[in-house]
Known about the structure:
Elements: E1 2-8, E2 15-23, E3 28-37, H1 41-48, H2 55-77, E4 85-88, E5 91-96, E6 101-105, H3 108-115, E7 119-121, H4 125-129, H5 139-145, E8 151-155, E9 158-165, E10 168-176, H6 178-187, H7 197-200, H8 206-213, H9 217-220, H10 226-232, H11 234-238, H12 244-260, E11 269-273, H13 280-289, E12 293-295, H14 299-318, H15 326-329, E13 339-341
Parallel strand pairs: 1-4, 4-7, 8-11, 11-12
Antiparallel strand pairs: 1-2, 2-3, 5-6, 7-13, 8-9, 9-10
Helix pairs in contact: 2-3, 5-14, 6-12, 8-12, 12-13
Amino acid sequence: MIVLGLMSGTSLDGLDMALMEFTNDGKTYELISASTVKYPNQWVSTLKKARDLSKSQLSQLHKDYGDFLGQQSVLFLKGKKSPDLISSHGHTVYHEPEKGITFQIGNLDNISSVTGIETVGDFRSLDVSKGGQGAPLVPVGDDILFSDYDYCVNLGGISNYSTTFQSKRIAKDISPCNIVSNILANKLGYEFDRNGDLGKSGRVRKDLLEKLNSWSYYDVGKSMGFEKLEKDFLPILSDFNSSIEDKLRTYYEHIGQIIGGYLKGSSKKALFTGGGAKNLFLMSCIDKYSECQKILPESDIIDFKEAIIFGLLGYLRIKNKINILSSVTGASSDSCSGKVSHPKL
Length: 345
């Protein structure tokens, strides 16, 4: 089956698109083509403000963003193999699973209408209805496609990892990542902190580091939404009196300590993907506090692993196979999740 996977993350870096062919019951794949569409400034602004919209405004945005996803898919697919399926993560606006709430915009009917291709998405809702966190969803793909590694770590807007423990896949959102460093870099007039150079120029403020390390999420959290960051993580940084460079430097040290604590065993291998894997200084901070061997794969895997795996989730849904693991999300049972939209004839 040829599948187009669509992924939009919390850091608003852009829309990742990965066209791949799955074979061997989804256990193997070939990446045919992949690309990232940078969001126009208007879309960045719109998506940032989505949580402040009224119910009717959000409903309209849900449709408009679905049209956008469909249009970008059509442009991307020109001259390429036509996929059997589009599998869309959507863009998360609300994720508060403890309240039974999760919502990703990007109406599936709009995508399928624009493209004329069967589309699957909304992977989180069923799991949340079964008492799960609805996240992380990538570990099922880690287990199927990247099982050669002891740990799979993704450094996206939020960092997460998965591993196998007592014959079960376990995973969690570990810490904030690019979403916060981008906010700090923006204050200095940069889109992001390339290679971590801005943070590298600062110094570690121990009192700030202690406050970040004491964030309440680290005691009980498993799945992290922007709501939680906005409520009581970002204020720790904004209320602290120091230069932005010092805040970035301290933040990187913090991430290194938190993530490094999960990567145990000098003989084990950790696969790193996501935009943060290209932040050389951040990676050096993680290396300082972790034992295992850190593997950076080819750039297509670094950039598009999540889009590839969301393509796999769609493939598994259409094949009626398990695509969400309760051992990861905490739900009452595994799920074959995702709503399907068929193009109108």
